[in-house]
Amino acid sequence: MTGAAQAERRLAFVAEWYQAEAAIIRTFLVTYFVADEAVEVFDQRSKKTFLRRTKIPELTQRDFFVGSKINVFGRQFDIVDYADESTRSNLAKYRKRGFVLLKNNMWHKHLGKFLKTLINNKININNGQMVQFTPKMVTQFLSGKPKNEVVSSVLMNELLAGPAISMELIGDNVVEIMIACVKYKGPDGVNDSSSVKLSSSLEELFEQEDVRYGIYCPATEEDVAIDLKFFFEDRLSIMKECLFKNSTLAIIKPHSIKDGLLGDIVDEILANGFNVTAMRMILMARINCEEFYEVYRGILPEYIPMVAQLASGVCMCLEIVSADPGKSSYGEFRTFCGPMDPEIAKLLRPHTLRAKFGKSKVLNAIHCTDLPDDTNLELQYMFKILD
Amino acid sequence: METIEFLNRTSRRNIKSQIGWKVAQRMREWSEDLDDRRGQLYVQLHSEALQVDEEVAALLQARADEAERKRHEWIHMERLKREEAEQELLKVKQQQREIENSEAHRHMQTKQILLESKQAQLQQIEDRQALRRRQACVEILWQRVWQRLDDSRAQQEQYEQQLRRLIEGQCQAENLARDQQQKAQLHQEVLAEQRAYAEALNVAAENDARKREMELQQNEVNRRKQLCDLQDQISQNMKLAASQAEANHREDVGYNIREDRQIYEELMQKHCARGRNRDWHQSYMTHTAEERAARRRSEQERERAYLGTGCVLGQQQKQPYGRAVR
């Protein structure tokens, strides 16, 4: 490939836009030009250019992958497929999907640090949910695994012991990296089996034995595909149920996840006397966001940008329970989140989440239930009503 | 049968309407609930906003108070410091004054001052004397220098005077002689010029007379010459006219002769042509007669040849028609 052709490198995707007025989905061809960070949209039905090559500084190359939602001048395009072979081969080569399962005893202590380290090493968390296995499910899950029986039974026991967290990872060469992490034997251990060089932060994390043994990850890309299908596509209703009792809802907003603050926020929450009892990552449609925020319509002037923000990408929903059963989780967590406006929060409550991670009234890092009566409603909406 | 159907239908309709009504009721309830919740949320957010506002205000107030307090403190401290410094200064001054006021100190001081001034005066006097001496020396020196300069200048002036006088004498004699010589020369030149002018005048008068005589002669000659020319011209003109007339006459005769010859030739030509025409006509007539005879003969021969065969030999040729032909 010559220098000029390299400079004109572009990524082409098939994207869908839901036109609310006509209630139809229209298909477009979205092309991203890497050299000048410009986007071109082509209407495939009418065979016309819908948006000519335009620079959109909010979008970066990292936003373009299959399954992401991009916002082009207020219009949300869902990328559903690659549009040409070169993009497919290019991206598929670099941005691989990986799978990891955090076992019950591990994530209680290390979830925040684990997420932080992965994000710092350019591995994105694309999807995730907390799962509760039943014996039947475990058998089904382990049925295709070529492991020896001891490992399987140990794993089965571990999985049955409590809720686990399954995650879909996206990053360069992610399967090999995760395998290397699991096999890491400390700075003086012999790393004969893997050719992947781990970064220092990863080494530091996986030096701890309970982290190393606390995760499960498949060894090959085929296994990854099987596991991802099992957890995220088959709808086997293995997601952990909410408690709905003295619990509250927290949503880590898409902008924080895009900025790579997910790990820090989760770490903060777990370190400040809260437990996570259910978790899922979800890509919410705009209509669902509107429905979810319905109670804020007419109350807050930022209703529309709030909806747009929540719909702009993957968000993480958490059911939060205070570690001290005597206290009200709702009140405690709301105080911990701080005032809605991060500026005020920085002034009055500098130790709250929004003061630390928020940027503006809309981009305030986290949503928490505002009305005490609404906690169960919102939890139900997030974990039960949305599929 | 019909009754059962009717009843069934009615009950079904009833159920449907009941469902619709229930849904509507639920929707109403839901919207009421939503409104209720909105109200609650509004109250809560509002009160929280107020509280936050209050807190911010209190915080800002506290900050402002703190800042003011700090400023006050600072000012106070500064004032204290300044006062202290003043006190210190006053104390020092007081001490100084006290020291100055004490008698012994004053006496000693006066003495010292007197001694110092005396010494200074002495020193001054000495200095002044030395200066004066030196000045005198310099003046004497200058006097000498000036004297020498004056002497040399006077001497030089004397020499110059002498020299100038000598040169003046010589120059005067020379100038006189030259002047006289120039005057004589001028006189001579004037005389010579006068003489030359007189001669030139004479010559001019003579020349005038001669010229006038020559002009008279010339006039005479001219007049005589003009007469001769006129006579010559008249005779020449007459000769020319005669020759011209003769030439004209000759030409006329020539023309007449030529015309006569031409007429003659034309007549002769016509005569010859007529003769020739007659010969040609005769020969033409005989020729046509011969031709006609030949044609008739050939026709007769053909008719004879085709006689009795039944062929139609003579067929009238198609004649063109039309006005132009007719």
UniProtKB/TrEMBL annotation, chain A:
User: InterPro entries from the entry?
Assistant: DM10_dom, NDK-like_dom, NDK-like_dom_sf, NDPK7, NDPk7B
Domain DM10 residue range list: 7-95
Q: Name one Pfam family in it.
A: NDK
SUPFAM superfamilies in the cross-refs: Nucleoside diphosphate kinase, NDK
Q: Which SMART domains match?
A: DM10, NDK
Enumerate the CDD domains for this protein: NDPk7B (cd04412)
Instruction: Give me the Gene Ontology terms describing cellular component.
Output: axonemal microtubule; centrosome
Q: Give the domain of life.
A: Eukaryota
Subcellular location per the Swiss-Prot or TrEMBL entry:
Cytoplasm, Cytoskeleton, Cilium axoneme
Q: Which GO terms describe its molecular function?
A: ATP binding; nucleoside diphosphate kinase activity
The membrane-spanning stretches of this chain are: none
UniProt entry keywords in alphabetical sequence: Cell projection, Cytoplasm, Cytoskeleton, Kinase, Transferase
- Coiled-coil annotation reads none
Its predominant location is cytoplasm
Q: Which family does it belong to?
A: Belongs to the NDK family.
PANTHER family on file: NUCLEOSIDE DIPHOSPHATE KINASE 7 (PTHR43109:SF2)
Tell me what this protein is called. Answer: Nucleoside diphosphate kinase 7
Q: What does UniProt list as this organism's lineage? A: Eukaryota, Metazoa, Ecdysozoa, Arthropoda, Hexapoda
Automatic annotation (TrEMBL), chain B:
Keyword annotations? Coiled coil
Q: Which residues form a coiled coil?
A: 50-169
Looking at the record's lineage, which domain of life comes first?
Answer: Eukaryota
Stated name of the protein? Golgin subfamily A member 6-like protein 22
**Native organism:** Drosophila pseudoobscura pseudoobscura (Fruit fly)
